[in-house]
Amino acid sequence: MFNVNIRTATAKDVAALASLACELGYPTTADEMSVRLAPLLNDADHAILMSVDDDVLGWIHVCVVPSLETTPFAEIRGLVVTAAHRSRGIGARLVEAAEAWARDRALPRIRVRSNILRERTHAFYERLGYETTKAQKVFDKSL
To answer: Which of 14-18's residues contact partners 24+ apart within 8 Å by CB, and which partners?
Structure first.
């Protein structure tokens, strides 16, 4: 397993966060990331954790999901490791850190959603003990 440090993201990390969001398939500029990141950094119900050595190797965004229909739970909103460092245990370490964050908040479970096309990602989460509990469609409407 690759030895890395996990730390909380700061406003100074916007360029690295944006670059990795692009690798995840979500083209993002540093300015766009700055606007998205700012409210999350000040919200105790969100954490953006980063894997770093001399460079940023990956990030994970986890948050509390309050709901009328269920007890609040944690959800992994995004996870990415730079292509050059995948398959070295970095993603697993980030997921462990997100799970610890959720446990610290006494949340009973953690969920992650993954595009049906990301079969390698599905296998990754299954290796970590995650189970598919449902399949659904996502509907968007531009406003």
So the answer is: 16/50, 16/55, 16/56, 16/59, 17/48, 17/50, 17/56, 17/59
Residue 81 has pLDDT above 80, yes or no: yes
pTM for the full predicted model: 0.91
Question: 19-34, pLDDT tens digit by residue?
Answer: 999 988 899 999 999 9
Q: How many CA atoms lie within 13 A of 29 on its CB side?
A: 3
Which contacts qualify for 65-70: CB closer than 8 Å, 24 or more apart?
Answer: 65/111
Residues 6+ away with beta carbon under 8 Å from 67: 73
- Give all domains of the chain, ordered by start, each with its CATH number: 5-127 (3.40.630.30)
